[in-house]
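Thought: the user wants the 3D structure for the chain below. I'll pass the sequence to the structure tool as-is, report back what it returns, then summarize two notable features.
Action: structure_tool
Action Input:
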Amino acid sequence: MTETAVYAAGGVVWRMRDGKLLVLAIHRTKYRDVTLPKGKVEPGETLAETAVREIHEETGIRVHLGVPVGISNYRLPSKRTKIVHYWSAQATEKAIRESVFLPNREIAAIEWMPARKALTKMSYPVDVEIVESFLKLVDDGVLETFPLVVLRHAKATPREEWKGADAERPLAARGRKQAAAIVGPLRAFGVRRVFSSDATRCVETVTPLATALNRDIHTTSSISQDAWDAGTADARMLIGKRVRAGKPAVLCSHRPVLPDVMHEIALATGTVKGSYLGDASALEPGAFSVVHLSATNPGSGIIAIETHPPAV
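Observation:
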């Protein structure tokens, strides 16, 4: 992010009702316009966290993020550029029932409308472009997705400062901060299952997330660095099970193992391999790539990959 720009995030919130695809628009009180839910990044937030928070604050609906559907750029009266990142976000019937939205000084009303009708109702061309991008998912038959998050462990204690076995090397102070900071963004993508190399630095990376989710950490040597060094690492079975399960999950591993993990996701989903897989696996400590897969037809390939830098 640059200091000269204003960053914001939001989403195209959608639901199916009686076989019809509806998207959620907001009617803003002050501007008397019709737009998509979005808002500015608060200090310490990632864009993904902002999108989920703003959607909830403006509509009362709690969502998890799906596929990214575009970025809008426009000039503010202050001459600064506003950059808004958007994701597709399905609203479950449970989340809609639990919404406590009331008209307020900022939002006069929220309105569910047929997705293609929204193209004619949005007040701004940038919103129309985002909805058009969202509708491409519909046309491609990949609207419903789930994420597999490929995570590199956070910053570990340097090897030269550790006298024990490498697998027992713990996180450094910075790594512990990174581990705490990834909880929010990973929850924004709806992660519910936690898988990790059995190395201490990987387990410690996902411990804050598992605690927040009240979930167990499923450890495995199949994606450990010791196994990779010995030539016995085998991510295929783990990846195959996660693809078949169709549930949001995080897989925490090591730098040299990550290309194999990404390669196996591509194989399991029938995705054509390319340099983008290498880019998505070249992660800094504490960084992660979100691999979006079709929830209805995992064999249709990787729908999108987005890479997020470490929050700390």
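Final Answer: Structure generated. The first strand starts at residue 5 and ends at 17. The chain has eleven helices and 13 strands.
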